Amino acid sequence: MSVSVSKGKRPGGNLKHRLVTTVRRDWQLWILLLPALAFFIVFCYFPMYGVQIAFRDYKAAFGITGSKWVGFKFFEKFFNSYYCGRMFANTFLLNLFGLIFGFPIPILLAIMLNQLNHKRFKGFAQTAIYVPHFISTVVLAGMIYLFFSPTNGIINHLITAAGGKSIYFIMEPGWFRPLFIGSEIWQNAGWNTILYIATLTSIDPQLYEAATIDGATRWNRIRHIDIPHLVPITVMMLILNCGSLLSSNTDKALLLQTSGNMPTSDILGVYVYSVGIAASKAQYSYASAIGLCLNVINFAIIMLVNAVSRKMSDISLF
Amino acid sequence: MTVMAKKKHGTRVRETKMDRVFNAVNLVFWIIVLLIVLYPLWLILIASVSDPEAVLQARVLLWPVDFSLMGYEAVFQYSELWGSYINSIFYTVVGSALSVIVSLAAAYALSRRFAGKKLVNLAITFTMFFSGGLIPIFLNVVNLGLYNTRAVMILMNLVSVWNLMVARTYIQTSIPNELYEAAVMDGANHFTYFFRCVLPLSGTIVAVLSVYYGVARWNDYFTGLVMLRDRSLYPLQLVLREILASLTSTGSSDTFFAAYADNLGGLQEALRKAEVAKYCCIVVSTVPAILLYVFMQKYFVKGVMIGSLKG
Q: Are residues A51 and A194 in the same domain?
């Protein structure tokens, strides 16, 4: 602001003058913003407007607003459907177990990495743990199928070599969650350390020095310096993660779902895809209703967790 | 420098017995972690250059067995795979270039003060937490006439809110505001300042965004699965899905391999080769993404750190 004043012909110009300068300068910002804004409007907000088909009996011929309004019919249909409870439970449990087992590991990795002395080895370790993140979901699923194959997968060869019985992992309902979450951890735990490592490297080295002089061991330094510094970012990540307790990694689940593991792999995201897109007679309104349900619940959870966290710890996303 | 060195020396002298135990434990911990991370990747690599029988009998554990390149020779024949490979290169290069430009321009705008910024910020952040859902997004694409076109593969996921925020934070923290003030003094407007000052100073963040967007696009199969019908438009990952899908109970992708039986010495032979060819497909499809990361890695870690510090 000060710049525009000093640049103006009349120093301390009146409001109108300042407004004119602002507009004259800011329109360029809007131009720079325009492509991104257009994307969000067309690909994010148009669909939000279109979500009303969840309350209508959508027929392509009548369009979105022309289709008949049916209120909560499809929501009722969904909540009364036979597998509704099972799908909610599966989705929730998959995410919950994923959070319980997956969330602490990146923090542990970041703390341990920070304690490595050897610079070259540290650099190598950091580079290496990021690599699995760059593998695609399709390839990851392919690796699971290859390694855990009942006939010629390496895991089952090891099991039978040790005298055990071969397990058909991908068809066993009991193995869906371990495979899904385990591969998730393998792929992303390293990558998810980034934020924590960034936080740890921003700690003032003098703190460590002072602690060392006072006789703190490495363990003491982790306990009294690293962990307290990691609390805010950890809470923020936890809030963010809670917001996806009912969302699903649909693309991955779709690849790992088989006729055998349906009792545990039947989750909401995949169901929306199957009835809304993959089915030969797609039920757009019904699938939209389920999707909307999930999004509203997820949104409510994140708001709730955020509010609770703000009350209790002063840490919040917004 | 000398002070630093002394201090370092000082801490090392102070290492207690407890610390040495801790260091040993930490080293063992990292060796185990690295084994878990890297061994599966190594296994893929050695299986891809081994003999099919050895792979099927799980004799390939540490080193290639009966080294052969027949898997790669077979993969070379899969013309549909290579067609989709070219599609994926197109989607990735064009799409990511567009994504980076659009994101950077928007990130710059959001790093400045202007009337209405709060509202724009709110509207963008909101999309992170709420979306119309799969079906409305799909119908929207159909209504726009983009279903089953190359354009939808470029325009879907054009801007990621997260990347936008990383870029904005980077610009805010690493390009001093004095530079802007000086440029304005010299008569620069936002366009000239953005193109002649911000862009040249944004090498790191361009590298980071390229990797983020590039890898996400290269690895995405779901957009293609939902938005495309013509096989000629398929991205690599969709074809890969069919190849690797023979591993499922349905056994559907034998048809994929069978299509190339004539060039590979008969059906029996084609299916035999397919056992290693699957590993080779994983290698040829994954190497570009990992290479991109390794080459960009120098800028990458630094840039992500800067961007995420206040993100």
A: no
Q: Is A149 on the interface with B (CB under 8 A)?
A: yes
Q: Which CATH number belongs to the domain containing residue A196 in this structure?
A: 1.10.3720.10
Whether the Cβ atoms of residue A48 and residue B131 lie closer than 8 Å to each other: yes
Total residues belonging to chain B: 311
Same domain, A185 and A127: yes
Do A145 and A32 fall within a single domain?
no
A175 touches chain B (CB under 8 A): no
Q: Cα(A125)–Cα(A113) distance, rounded to whole angstroms?
A: 8
Measured between its terminal Cα atoms, the distance across chain B in Å is 32
Helix %, strand %, coil % of chain B (to 5): 80, 0, 20
DSSP-assigned states of every residue in B171-212? HHHHS-HHHHHHHHHTT--HHHHIIIIIGGG-HHHHHHHHHH
Tokens for A35?
A: 């492509």
Q: What is the pLDDT of residues B3-27, one digit of tens each?
A: 444 444 444 545 778 888 888 999 9
CA-atom Rg of chain A in angstroms: 26
Q: In this predicted complex, what is the ipTM?
A: 0.86
DSSP class of A57: E
Would the CB atoms of A209 and B189 count as touching at under 8 Å?
no
Same domain, A125 and A199: yes
Q: Which has the closest alpha carbon to B306: B170, B103, B211?
A: B170
Instruction: Write out pLDDT tens, residues B54-100.
Output: 888 888 888 888 888 888 888 888 888 899 999 999 999 999 999 99
**What's the pLDDT at A151?**
80
Architecture, CATH, for domain B73-309: Orthogonal Bundle (1.10)
pTM of the predicted protein model: 0.86
Give dist(CA A51, CA B104) in Å, integer: 30
Residues of chain B positioned with their CB less than 8 A from the CB of A193: none
User: Could you count the other beta carbons within 10 Å of the beta carbon of residue A5?
Assistant: 14
Amino acid at B50: S
User: Rounded distance, CA B239 to CA B82, Å?
Assistant: 10
Sequence spans of domains, chain B: 2-69, 73-309
- Radius of gyration of chain B from Cα atoms? 25
Q: Which of A40, A272, A294 sits opposite B123 (nearest CB)?
A: A40
Question: Contact at 8 Å (CB) between B25 and A111?
Answer: no
A33 closest CB neighbour out of B18, B55, B106:
B106
Domain containing residue A235: 73-313
Domain boundary among A69, A91, A114: A69
